[in-house]
Protein: Lysine--tRNA ligase
Organism: Stylonychia lemnae
Amino acid sequence: MVSPYFALSHSIIEIQNQYSQIDLTNEHFKTVNIQTGGRIIGRRKASGNLLFLDLQSNGNNIQIMLDSSKMLLNQEESFKDIAEACQRGAIVGIQGYPGRTNAGEFTIIAQKFNLLTPCNVNMPMMNWSHKKTLKDSEQRFQKRYLDLIANNELKQFFVTRARIVKFLRRYLEDLEFLEVETPILNAQAGGALAKPFETESQILRQKLELRIAPELFLKKLIIGGFERVYELGKVFRNEGIDATHNPEFTSLEFYMAYADYRDLITLTEDLLSKLSKELYGTDHVLIPQFDMDQKLITKGDKAGEQVKETKVLEINFKGPYKQFDVCSELGLDPALLGKSAQELRKFLLPKVYGIGERNLNPDSLNEKQLIDKLIEYHIESKCLQPSFITNHPMIMSPLAKTHAQGKYGNQIYGDSAQYLSERFELFINKKEIINSYSEQNDSEMQRKGFSLQTTMGDEGHQDEELHRSDEDFLEALSYGMPPTAGWGCGIDRLCMLMCGISHIREIILFPMFRTSVLSQGKEVKKDKDQNLKKST
């Protein structure tokens, strides 16, 4: 008989914390009334009158002992019926008291049993060595609910993710930032170098694009008088899927008036140091690394047996971080950025050809893409520890302020300052985590920045990530925006780093995948069922 309702007096973690470490031999504990519940993930039948259950709830497990001599059964119940109802996957409610088995194991000794929800299918095993474990990656992501049931340790990653998001909000609000919400649907998506998804409004009878970044809207709020704003939410980019990219992902962007990118370098170092202390208690951390199946990566062997030495990533989040100047690292004279595109390409092409990357045709790339490829090969590969890549050419940063407009004007780079942006990217373990720059607040300079992107697009080099001009934003900027610094972080990548995860799909509860994979899986199952019928 399925019970329609069951009230809990204790969660599993509360029971463990309160009773698991104390002496339970006193008769007093038999009078303690505990009502708890969860999903049966394991059952062991010791005899016809004794059954042990492993109960799981909210990521925590506890053992339940069902002894027919200790249960309070009514006339309509029998221990046999209860034992038959205790199938793996069923959700049950247990009323009993804390105790220990003859072997000294902590357990809840059940007095009453309530079947709350039966499980009508065979559950995968929870042991990775078992052949019926849920291991297939596509199956795991298609049926994430089943993945979370079968692979209980996975829940901890999402608990850590929630802690990271909570910390980031608290950190910014302590600095008097205001959280805001901006549109996801736009007539023209902007604020980043990316290809948008397209849709259509039947009511408005116009094409719309899903946002690729909230940047332009947030800067309009700075123009409107909010001096510190941030948004944490979803953005959408119609691009490839790999270990660090998912078309739908979570970003955090904030904009701070009366600041420049140097201020945000200091802020970034402080934020990450405090985040590591929040999660690990120190800013010099050893993060265990997990493989694609969320198993700890181990290394070494001894006498043919695996040595349980966990692979870790050692990171020192204490600032200051190392900085790599783009032009200095690439041997690029900043003055060359002011020459013609042909002269710049003459310098860049041999260097990109020298990389020797397979299936790469440097002649098909524009100047921005060529420089980006050189940064990837020569600089990003050095960024194991937290490192800033700084002062990108303006052709890569159309929304940023030039060094000539910045705090030091032409003092550092001379006449070439106009070709370099006040920008940094933070890389850790060779992956981009944060992008930031002093925001362009001169409407005419911003128009020229957009125009330069358009010119590169007209040169015949394929690049769907060029920034399009936005007249509405240019009009807003003409009303005047205070000197402002902007900052953007991919939350999924940050969580990957702090959890030691190797693929972005593992830190997104419902990642994107081909729908054909789902239908293919159904067809395979259908074929197996048909073959089984034929054989019988």
Remarks:
- The radius of gyration is 29 Å.
- Residues 12-117 form a domain with the OB fold (Dihydrolipoamide Acetyltransferase, E2P) fold (CATH 2.40.50.140).
- The longest strand covers residues 34-47.
